[in-house]
């Protein structure tokens, strides 16, 4: 569902003539792969909150 929304959003922005240079998302694996395979020209960064939450969750199990 997240991936489909991203696809529609990118398509809509490109149809308006907007050049997308960077996208910031959570660490969704399907989005990572799709951007890498289909839009390698767009820089993909991760939302800091999601990265920090992942570290916090990891420390919980240690």
Textual characterization of the structure:
The protein is of the alpha+beta class. The protein has one domain. It is 61% helix and 13% strand. The protein is built from three helices and two strands. Strands 1-2 form a two-stranded parallel sheet. α2 links the parallel β1 (22-25) and β2 (43-46). The chain starts with a helix and ends with a helix. The mean pLDDT is 88.
Pairing-aware structural class of the strands and helices? alpha+beta
Q: What is the helix/strand order?
A: HEHEH
Extended strand count: 2
Strand order of the largest sheet: 1-2
* Bulk shape: elongated
Report strand %: 5-15%
Number of domains: 1
Largest sheet: 2 strands, parallel
The share of residues in helices is: 55-70%
Radius of gyration: 14 Å
Low-confidence stretches: none
- The number of distinct helices, counting runs of at least 4 residues, comes to 3
Cα(first) to Cα(last) distance is 32 Å
Mean pLDDT: 88
Layout of SSEs?
Elements: H1 2-15, E1 22-25, H2 29-38, E2 43-46, H3 48-61
Parallel strand pairs: 1-2
In brief, what are we looking at here?
By secondary structure, the chain is α+β, with helices and mostly antiparallel strands. It is 61% helix and 13% strand.
Question: Which keywords apply here?
Answer:
62 residues; alpha+beta; two-stranded parallel sheet; 2 strands; elongated
